[in-house]
Every structure is written in structure tokens, then in C-alpha cells.
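Blackboard transcription, Thursday session:
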Amino acid sequence: MKDKKTEETSNKPVPRHVAIIMDGNGRWAKKRLLPRNAGHVQGSRVAEQICEDAFNLGIEYLTIYAFSTENWARPKDEVDALMKLLRKYMKDSIQRSSKNNMRVHVIGDISALDEDLIESIKKLEEVSASNTGLKFQVAINYGGRDEIVRAARAFAEDVAAGKRKPEELSEALFYSYFDTAGIPYPDLMIRTSGELRTSNFLPWQLAYTEFYFTDVLWPDFNKKELQKAIDYYGSRDRRFGGV
Ligand code: FPP
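(Written on the board underneath:)
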């Protein structure tokens, strides 16, 4: 995955920013009589591969939902296994990002994570900050409503400190307080495994996004399936409220 896009990019519009809800790891494992964690392990491999495929298909920004604010309610074993996977993923990505030129940014409230994981995240963000390849956002302990509340609080604090005035607030200024500040809104949101909901993922940012739902389970998702989603996007007529 280098800076240059490949010839695979066709004339059809390619979404600049794709957001993915990677669902179905548990069902994938169950179908194979494997523990749920085996599905997450395979899911994290697919997430790694999809970064490369996305960039080769001409996508500039990719945002994935790795762990939601609601996922803490899962059994402790599963939460621990997911955290272990994320820990490994962040550590491995420190090396990988220098090879594949990817810029990684974690969104969500990371303050609730273990200290060593926070350290890995910070290090990864730091070492990859000036990379010019795929802009990759990983949502960890992310909840869209939580993000909006944190943004509102940060703005209120700036008002209280005399840095801002309430009447200054616009959509653009408010967005600058979000975890995804500076990142264009997603053009396409993909959810795997057949569920038709957005589950508190980027509610502000997805307001005009095209949605693509597929029955394919996340661990089975691949470049061909991503291409299908891009083709679907290319066939949509985006009017943004116009005619
Ligand atoms: C949904 O599957 C998936 C998640 C809870 C989070 C996604 C996590 C990964 C792909 C692995 C970790 C990611 C990285 C980047 C290291 P589910 O368990 O809800 O599946 P089910 O609905 O079939 O039970």
C-alpha cells in the first residue's frame, strides 16, 4: 500500500470516506463451532487486509467500529479478549504504519482504557501522524451520543473560559470539537451481517451518508465485497437535500 492509487480505480465515483460496522464475528465463529473470540481474531485480520484493499481501490479515509461504549456490557471474558486483540493490533500497527504509510487515529473516549493500551494508541498516532497514505480511524470505546456530549462539554468549557461566545457556534465550529474534526463526513457506511441499524456509530457524521447493508459476516468480508459496496455507491444519486 503506497501513495499511488492503482489502475483498479475506475471512472465510477469512489467514496472518499468509508465507515464500516464490522458485525457478525460471533455468528461466523458459531457456524464453525468455534469460540466467539475466534471470530474476533479472524475479524481483526480482515480489518487489516481491508485497509490495504480500500486504499488500492481509491478510498482516502476509512473508519471502523472496533469497540463501542455499549460493548462493555458483554461477558468479561469477551471484553478481555477484545482488549487483548486491540492491544496487539495497536502494537503491530506501530511497525505496519511505517511500511504501509497509513495514518492512524483513534476516536472515542480512550480515557477508560488500560494505561498500556492508551500508551500504544498515543505512540501509534504519533509515529503515523505525517503518513500520507490511507487515513484510518479506529473507533474504540466510541459512542456517537457520547462524542456529541463530549463536544458540547468542550465547547461549554471554552465559553466559560471566555475563549468562545455561544452565538459563534455553527455546525462547522461544533464539528471542530468532535473526535473526527478535520475528517470529511463518510460518503458510504457499510454494515455486515444483515443487521439494519447504525448502533450509535457516527450519528452526526452519517446524516447524508449512503448506507450499504450486506448479509456477509465480517470475517468473510473481502476486497470483492468491498468492490460491490463501492459499485452500489457509484450507482446512487446523491442530492444532499437538493433536487
Ligand atoms: C461484532 O461482532 C464485532 C465487534 C463487537 C467488534 C469488531 C471487532 C473486531 C473486528 C475485532 C477487533 C478489531 C480490531 C481492529 C483489532 P459480534 O460479536 O457482535 O458478532 P455477532 O453479532 O455475530 O455476535
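Lecturer's comment: Confidence is low (pLDDT under 50) at residues 2-9.
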